[in-house]
Amino acid sequence: MPDEQRARFQDRSYLILAVHDASPAAALGLTAGWAILSMGRAELTEGRIERAQLNREQNVFLLADPDGQTYRTEPSLWPFGIVTAPWPGASLKRQIARGHCDLEELTRYWKQGALSVYPSLIRSLETYLSQPFVGFFKRLQGKIATPDQLAQNDNYNVLSFLALAYAVDRNLQKAEFYLAATRDARVRAQQASYSTIDSSLDAYTESLISEQKGETARALEMAQKAKGFSSDIWEVERRLAELEKRPPVSETPAWVGETFPINYQLPAHDPLGEIRNNVPDVRFDEVIKSLNPGEFLVVLVLGGYRSNYYYNLDLVRLAILRKAFPGTIREVHAITSGTYALDANHRKYCEGFARDNELPFAILWDEDDQVAAAVMPTGSPERFLVDSRGTVHATERLMEEEGYWKAIARIRA
Q: What is the 3-state secondary structure (H, E, C) of 275-332?
């Protein structure tokens, strides 16, 4: 492919940020830094990449390696095991500046360390935050509001990424300014308690700032704090290991290798009355005894802030995994003691997707919180991948695929 044509493709492509061990993508030889240039004749979007995972017919992908060599796949099921985000080029910067700022994509960049490697997004983030102050048309012409105006923007998530971008750019004054603005915006939004990922990002940014100021002890303290908020973020572990002068390691989460702590028997009951189950109750021991070798029961213990949101994402990802890899996931138990669905439309889509793709799942009513008392949930929700002996193989966020691939690697070890 001519360089000019490849450059045009690349700017609209999806960058592979990471490839999981033991995955089909790893078997193909894909690594971080490869790009998905196109998918058949259709526009390339993350949604299309995901939907292609369930369609074995006429899925042809054009890939490019880090040296610019291009490859075309045979029509097949697109392999799992990759973490992707839009290519960090002019197209992405335009999207951010125009208000199409996908926080999940920015979070993936940070988690994989890409925000420290690829060109800065500072101007795009500032242009996006300028909208309420300079107007839409001036914003498209690149007009930037003053720092004091930007600090008044209530979008604390984008402000936090702007603080990080300035910290990476070694502009400590602005990094500290926008980190303080982020926290003030959360107070205005009455978000005194925010997600562990957001908390980890703030601490990570403060660690960068402290190190550049020569405050080594403070930098280490904040990196440890970031790790405490989200122990499974690789970039946080990499930074902490660098400060502690040791190799980064992947920790084994709590419960992995242990026996699931409670043999529950719960009524199959949806507290909102939207799902009718075929059985009056479900017994944990009966389900795991019926598992074949290599099959798993997924237990999702709901409860806490926004647990319904992650439960819905888990269902979609688990449905895809089960269809792509038959004989792995038998069924899903979502255990709740309250009305967990805050967004009925989101829930309807995700649960409908699971049913359409033949993922067996049940809402189990745990009025007395017996299961929650046994597992002491700290996540939203708490997840368990359990085998026929009742052994827990993974507790990671299944909706991000990582938990699935870590479980596979542990089983094969």
A: CCCCCCEEEHHHHHHCCCCCCEEEEEECCCCCHHHHHHHHHHHHHHHHHHCCCCEEEE
